[in-house]
Design brief:
Blueprint lengths: L6 H11 L2 E2 L26 H13 L28 H9 L9 H15 L29 H10 L4 H11 L4 E3 L20 E3 L10 H8 L7 H4 L7 H7 L4 H8 L3 H14 L17 E10 L5 E11 L10 E5 L5 E3 L6 E3 L2 E11 L8 E6 L2 E6 L4 E3 L5 E4 L3 E9 L6 E10 L2 E9 L5 E6 L2 E9 L9 E5 L5 E6 L1
Antiparallel strand pairs: 1-8, 2-3, 4-5, 5-9, 6-7, 6-10, 8-9, 10-11, 12-14, 13-14, 14-18, 15-16, 15-19, 17-18, 19-20
Helix pairs in contact: 2-3, 2-4, 6-11
The structure holds protoporphyrin IX containing FE.
EC number: 1.11.1.-
InterPro entries: Ccp1-like, Haem_peroxidase, Haem_peroxidase_sf
GO molecular function, one term: metal ion binding
């Protein structure tokens, strides 16, 4: 299949942009509405959007930027039994993230993306998202501040992760605009009186708008109104007032400055939270920013029909930035230099904070694979050309996955060359100690020639994973240098 601009960016862009309606990835359902709690009863008093941000904070803050270790690496998944990681947020989040993790999307990337989406979909500004984080294979350092941690220790933890005092106060205020402190998990901060039939975990909000990423927490703290900064300011237990101690550690100068920013606070949070999610081990090079694509080919793949003809099919997604004006003009698909094919959108559209998406299905016979090196989409004021390669491809209709006691993959790849291809299969599977999957790799999978179709040799193979796949697996055809020629996700 063909992915634009590349496999990883294409799959992550799908989660970021296809949030509601047609072809949604389902990821944003967890935080829709932003008061939602996806991991249990709505009367728990918990909110998923807030949990995701807290999980990322706990993963990040134990980074040691001087030595280039830790940060956003999903090591938090191995650290859930530590006292400093009290609460259900960590396992709740990783359980929800699990099916989205695959050979090109790490748990750490999903965790970073979850912050971007909680903030961006719940009233905050858009945090630029880069991909490429690699998951840790075990727990990392200790060092998450707790409600009773003293100021030098707290600032020491933040400073190890590269955040000075002003940054730390800002980042904490940004984080504490969403969510609550719960009696269940933090009884020394919030007393049992917070528990009620519609607030079973006994959550007390940080500000009056628990599910809005807004500057209110700063103003309520400064003005002594509403939640007055929340339980970590007002706790009955003086030693649990960590936010009060932190905010007062520079005589409230930073909080006053944040208050004076008005809605500019949201941009301050973008800067701080982007730095937080981009704190990664030094060996990692993050990708370019994953941006919403206005014209995006989706599931664009070569395949054979029942008569053995070569077909090219998929969808063109057109994103119109203004949610109120869905695309109406016609669009055309041109393959190589043949006649343009008119495209008709499906009736169902998608909606997101980036605009409205319309999906134009296509399926067209490829007469001469040898001259098919690109296709183009014309319409909506643009003409965009996308490259393709046809030397080899994973055949979707001849590939299947079954999961009973173990996951079994049966695949077919097609090559124009008569030489048996090199095939690599990667599968996300469960691992000990964390709910974040590990990736199991099968190199050089044996293939057998099963005949010819439309000028291609067919090669079949199979893999018994020996475990259950937790998400999509990948089948890749590699060239002589080990470079990926084509990949399919199943
Ligand atoms: C001195 C620093 C900090 C301390 C001591 C602290 C402590 C806490 C505690 C005790 C809770 C309650 C958790 C629960 O009951 O489920 C909490 C919630 C939360 N924290 Fe912090 N925090 C700090 C900084 C931060 C930072 C920097 C962020 C993010 C940038 C953050 C994000 C959150 C969020 C979003 C929640 C709400 C979670 C929910 O509603 O489930 N915190 N924090």
């Amino acid at each position: 299949a063909f992915f634009y601009p590349n496999t990883q960016a294409s799959l992550l862009e799908h989660i970021l942009v296809d949030t509601h309606g047609a072809h949604s990835s389902g990821f944003a359902d967890a935080i829709t509405p932003c008061t939602n709690y996806v991991s249990g009863n709505q009367s728990m008093g918990r909110t998923t959007a807030a949990q995701w941000i807290r999980v990322a904070f706990h993963d990040f803050v134990t980074a040691d930027v001087a030595s280039g270790t830790g940060g956003l690496d999903a090591s938090i998944g191995f650290e859930t039994l530590r006292e400093e990681n009290s609460g259900s947020a960590f396992n709740d989040s990783f359980t929800f993230f699990r099916p989205y993790v695959n050979p090109v999307i790490s748990t750490a990337d999903i965790l970073a993306l979850s912050v971007v989406m909680s903030v961006g979909n719940c009233g905050g500004a858009q945090i630029p998202f880069r991909a490429g984080r690699i998951d840790a294979t075990g727990g990392g350092a200790f060092g998450v501040p707790a409600p009773e941690t003293d100021i030098p220790t707290t600032l020491g933890f933040f400073s190890g992760a590269g955040f000075n005092q002003v940054d730390s106060i800002g980042l904490t205020a940004c984080g504490h605009t969403l969510g609550s402190v719960h009696h269940g998990g933090f009884p020394t901060v919030v007393g049992p009186e917070a528990v009620s039939s519609d607030n079973l975990a006994g959550g007390i909000h940080f500000d009056t708008t628990v599910a809005n990423f807004d500057p209110l927490v700063v103003h309520e703290y400064l003005n002594g109104t509403g939640q007055r900064g929340g339980p970590l300011v007002t706790s009955f237990n003086v030693s649990s007032r960590s936010d009060l101690r932190l905010y007062e550690s520079d005589n409230n100068l930073t909080m006053i400055a944040l208050g004076e920013q008005g809605t500019g606070f949201l941009n301050t949070c973008v800067g701080l939270l982007q730095r937080m999610i981009e704190t990664v081990p030094k060996s990692i090079v993050l990708s370019d920013v994953v941006t919403p694509m206005e014209v995006k080919p989706i599931n664009a793949s070569l395949d054979f029909d029942s008569k053995g003809n070569l077909f090219f099919s998929g969808y063109i997604r057109i994103l119109t930035p203004t949610p109120s004006s869905p695309p109406s003009a016609p669009a055309f698909l041109t393959i190589a230099s043949t006649t343009p094919i008119p495209l008709t959108p499906e009736p169902a559209q998608g909606q997101s904070i980036f605009g409205t998406t319309a999906f134009y299905p296509f399926a067209t016979k490829v007469i001469d694979a040898g001259s098919f090196a690109h296709f183009s989409v014309t319409g909506h004021g643009s003409h965009i050309t996308f490259p393709v390669q046809t030397s080899a491809f994973v055949v979707p209709s001849l590939t299947s996955v079954s999961s009973t006691s173990t996951t079994i993959l049966n695949f077919t790849v097609a090559t124009r060359s008569r030489v048996a291809p090199t095939v690599k299969v990667q599968v996300p599977v469960g691992q000990q100690g964390t709910l974040g999957p590990a990736i199991k790799t099968f190199d050089n999978v044996a293939v057998n020639n099963t005949g010819r179709k439309a000028g291609y040799e067919l090669w079949a193979g199979s893999v018994d994973v020996g475990a259950l796949a937790t998400g999509a697996l990948s089948v890749a055809i590699l060239d002589g240098e080990g470079k990926e020629v084509d990949v399919g996700f199943f």
